[in-house]
Amino acid sequence: MAGKEVEVRFKVFRFNPKTDFAPRWQEYRVNVDRSTTVLDALLKIKEEQDPTLAIRYSCRQAVCGSCGMMINDKQMLACFTRVLELNSNVVKVAPLKNYRVIKDLVTDFGEVFQKERQVKPYIIRHDVEELLNPTGTYKQKEEELLGYIQFADCIECGMCSSACPVSATDPLYLGPMVLNRAYRFIADPRDLGFEQRLEAIDSEHGCWRCHFAASCSAVCPKGVDPAKAIQLLRRALVKRAVLGISSSKVSELIPMPHIKGKLELPKGWQ
Amino acid sequence: MPDKLEADVLIVGSGLAGLRAAIEAASSDKSIRVAVLTKVHAMRSHSVAYAGGTAAVLYPEEGDSFDLHAFDTVKGSDYLGDQDAIELMVRVAPQEILRLEHWGMPWSRRPDGRVAQRPFGGHSFDRACFAADKTGLYAMQTLYNTTHKYDNIEIFHEWYVTSLLVEDGEFKGVTAIDMKSGEFYAFEAKAGIIATGGAGRLYSFTTYGHSATADGLAMAYRVGIPLKDMEFIQFHPTGLVPQGILISEAARGEGGYLRNNKGERFMKDYAPQKMELAPRDIVSRAMMREILDGRGFPGPNGLDYVHLDLTHLGEEVIDEKLTEIKMIAIKFGGIDPAREPIPVRPVAHYTMGGIHTDTYGRTPVRGLFAAGEAACISVHGANRLGCNSTMECLVYGYLTGKQAAEYVKEKGKSDPSPELVLAEERRVFDGILRGGSGEDPYTIKRELQQTMSDHAYVFRDGDGLSRALKKVRELRQRFGTGRVADKSREFNQNLINVLEIDMMLEVAEVVLVSAIARTESRGAHYRLDYPKRDDANWLKHTLAYRTADGPRLDYIPVRITRWPPAERKY
C-alpha cells in the first residue's frame, strides 16, 4: 500500500505529426509512492500539469491492452509497471515502436486490426444453423482446451509486434500478434477453418517470415509466447505439405434438450 | 455542415452487450449495415475485466430450474426486479452460453467435456459458467473475433459519441467525434442501441476502468428519456486497497474467508448460512459495520479495510483457479495470497439503475434500445447477483440486436434535421473547445468522486446525501461549460474528458436526488435514518426526468407476477 513519496523525473515523448515539425522530449516531475504505476504517474501529469498529453488507457489492471508503450526503451504496459520497480530516477516514456504515432503516446492500430481480419480469427464450421441456434454443446476435454488456451490469453496490446525485428522492416508481415491469433483458432478442436487461413499464413509475409528472434515472447505481459505459436503454425503447415494431414478434428455435439430455440418478441413500438 | 455517415443499426459501446447486439443484428440479415461506435478500441471495453462468470441454468436434470434462478434473482433484487423480465432473461440465458461456446469461448469444462459451473453469491445452485478467472477477457475476445465474420459490421474504434439525435420521439442517429482526426460527424441510423455501461467512475474507489463515465446515460437523459432507479449502486465487497481493483467473488466462491482484526469470520453474525457467499449488499454492509465498529484495519486515505483470507486454500487451488487474482494481489498489492491475507473494502462496482426500458429493452424513444449495464429494465432491482450482469449483457444484446434488425426492415431512411446537428457542433466546438469557461475540469472530477464516495456509499443518510447534492450543484457551477486547455484537433483527450465530466455531473445529480427521495432501505440503497424496507410506500421504480431545475421524479410500479414480496434472509 501507499507509503512514502519520492519525486521522479519523467521524460515524455511529445509529437503531433499533423502540426509539429519534429518530436520533442518534455520533462515533468511527479511524486510517486510504492503503489504508483507508470500509468498513474502519466495521468497525474495529464490531470495536474499538462492536459494536452495524449495517452491511451482504460482498465488500469493489465487486461484491456490499451497502455503498451516504451518505458525506458522497453515495451511495457504502463498500468502494470510500478514506477519504483524501474529503479531509475528518470523514466523515459515513448510510444510503441513499429506503429505510426497519432499523437504523443498514442499509436495507430488500424493496420494491425486489418491484418487480423486476414487470418479469419473466428470459429469456422459448416453447421451454420447450429452455430446460430445451438441445440447442445461441443464436447471439449481439458487436454483439448490446454492445446490452445495459452494463446487465447492475448490482450492485443500489440507489444509483441512492436518488439519484433521483422515487423520493423517488413510492413506487410502479419506479425506475432496476428499469427498467434490465427494459431489460437487452428489449435481449437471446434474449428475447421485451417484451409481457409492458408492464403494469409502460408505466404512470404506470413509465418515463414519469422526468423525466431523470440523478442515477441520476451515482452508479452501475459506469458502468451507468440514465438511458439508461430513455430506450431509452421509445424502444422509442414505436416499438411509432407504428410497430407491438414485436420483430423472431430467435435462431438452433446445435446441439451431443455435449450429451446424460439421466443416471441414484440414488433416495433406500436 | 459536418460530414454524414449512415448505418441501419447503430450501436454505441463495444462491451459484451454492444458486441453481442452487433452480431445478432448482422447475422439476422446480411443486408443490414451495422455500425459499432466505441470510444476505446472495441476489444478494450471494461467487460474484459470480469473474472467471475455468467449465470445460466444448464443442468435441470441435476436440480436447477428456471424458476429457481428467477426466484434467486427476484429475492436478490430485494423484490424490486420486474419478474416478467427476469423470467424472460433466465430462459434465454442457457442458449447464450452455448452460442458463446460454439463461437470459441474456452469455458472451463467438466471431466466429461461439458460446460462446468461453480457456486456464486445469492444463487441457490452452482450455476456460474466460467473460464478460469478470465471469463470476461475470453468472452470479449470471442465476441470481438466473431464480429469479423460479418462484412456488414463496421467498427469505429475511438469514436466518441457526443449526443443522440432524436426528433418527434424517434431515433435518427448520433453525433460523434472521430478521435484520431478530431473530425465531427452526423451519423444517421434507423435504429440505435445504447450499450455504454455503468456509472462507476462517479466514485473515487471503484472497480471500473477509466472509461465508465456514464456517457450513454447522460445522453439519453438529455433527450428526455428518464433514468430509472439510479439510487441503486452496488458496492462489491472486495475491492483491493488502495487501487479499488476488483478481487473477484470467485475468491470466495472457491472458499475464501473474510476476517476482521480479531481474525474472526465475522459473516457468521450477519448471514450464518451463506456466510461469505451472501449477496453483495449484505456482505458489504457487514464489512462496513465491522470497520465502523473498530474491527477493521487502518488504511491509507481513510480506506480502512478487512482481510480476505485465501491462505487456507493452498497454492495449488490458487495457481489453478485463481491465477488472475493472484496476479492482481502480487502485482498491485505486493501480497502473495497463498501466504498473506488481501486488504479489501467495499468498492463501487455496478449501476443497477440506468436508461429506462421496457421488458424487451425498448426505450420510450421509437427505434432506440438500451442493453447491458447502461439499461435499467429492471432485472436487478435494488441489488444484482454476481454473474447476472454478464448474463443480462448477452441476453439483452441478443434481444435488442434481433429487434433492431426487425425494426429497420420496415423503416425508411433516417433524416435528422441539420439544425440539430449544427447546434451540437456549435455546443462542442464553439461552446466548449474554443469558448469554454470554468475551473480546471480534473479538480472538479476529483471533488465529485470524493463527494460521492463520502456520502452516497454503503451507508447513507438524508443529511449527507443533501450535502452531497449541494456540493454537486456547486461543482456544476464551477465547471461552467467546461474548460479545455488542449486546442488541437487530433486525439484531443482533454476535450473528450471535459465532455465526460460534464456527463458525470449530470448523472451524479440524478443518483443523489433519487437517493434522497427514497426514504427506506432496500438492497444496495441503505439509509441509516430509514433502516427498514417499506413496501407500502416504496415498492416502486424511480424515474428521473431532466428539467431546467434538475431532475423531476416520478414512480412506476414493479411488475410482480409470481413471487410476492417477502423478507429477505440468507
TrEMBL record, chain A:
Any one GO biological process: respiratory electron transport chain
InterPro entries membership: 2Fe-2S_ferredoxin-like_sf (IPR036010), 2Fe-2S_ferredoxin-type (IPR001041), 2Fe2S_fd_BS (IPR006058), 4Fe4S_Fe-S-bd (IPR017896), 4Fe4S_Fe_S_CS (IPR017900), Beta-grasp_dom_sf (IPR012675), Helical_ferredxn (IPR009051), SDH/FRD_Iron-Sulfur (IPR050573)
Pfam families: Fer2_3 (PF13085), Fer4_8 (PF13183)
Molecular function terms from GO: 2 iron, 2 sulfur cluster binding; 3 iron, 4 sulfur cluster binding; 4 iron, 4 sulfur cluster binding; electron transfer activity; metal ion binding; succinate dehydrogenase (quinone) activity
Cofactor requirements of the protein: [4Fe-4S] cluster; [3Fe-4S] cluster; [2Fe-2S] cluster
EC number: 1.3.5.1
Keyword Disulfide bond found: no
Top-rank taxon: Archaea
4Fe-4S ferredoxin-type domain boundaries: 145-174
Entry keyword set: 2Fe-2S, 3Fe-4S, 4Fe-4S, Iron, Iron-sulfur, Metal-binding, Oxidoreductase, Tricarboxylic acid cycle
Domain 2Fe-2S ferredoxin-type: residue ranges: 17-97
Pathway listed: Carbohydrate metabolism; tricarboxylic acid cycle
UniProt xrefs under PANTHER family: SUCCINATE DEHYDROGENASE [UBIQUINONE] IRON-SULFUR SUBUNIT, MITOCHONDRIAL (PTHR11921:SF29), SUCCINATE DEHYDROGENASE IRON-SULFUR PROTEIN (PTHR11921)
Family per record: Belongs to the succinate dehydrogenase/fumarate reductase iron-sulfur protein family.
Listed name of the protein: succinate dehydrogenase
Organism of origin: Candidatus Terraquivivens tikiterensis
UniProtKB/TrEMBL annotation, chain B:
Domain FAD-dependent oxidoreductase 2 FAD-binding: 8-389
Membrane topology designation: Peripheral membrane protein
Catalytic residues as annotated in Swiss-Prot or TrEMBL: R280 (proton acceptor)
Entries under Gene3D superfamilies matching the protein: FAD/NAD(P)-binding domain, Fumarate reductase/succinate dehydrogenase flavoprotein-like, C-terminal domain, succinate dehydrogenase protein domain, Succinate dehydrogenase/fumarate reductase flavoprotein, catalytic domain
Localization annotation: Cell membrane
Keyword terms, alphabetized: Cell membrane, Electron transport, FAD, Flavoprotein, Membrane, Nucleotide-binding, Oxidoreductase, Transport
Catalytic activity: a menaquinone + succinate = a menaquinol + fumarate
NCBIfam families: PRK06069.1, sdhA_frdA_Gneg
Protein name from the UniProt record: Fumarate reductase flavoprotein subunit
Species for this entry: Candidatus Terraquivivens tikiterensis
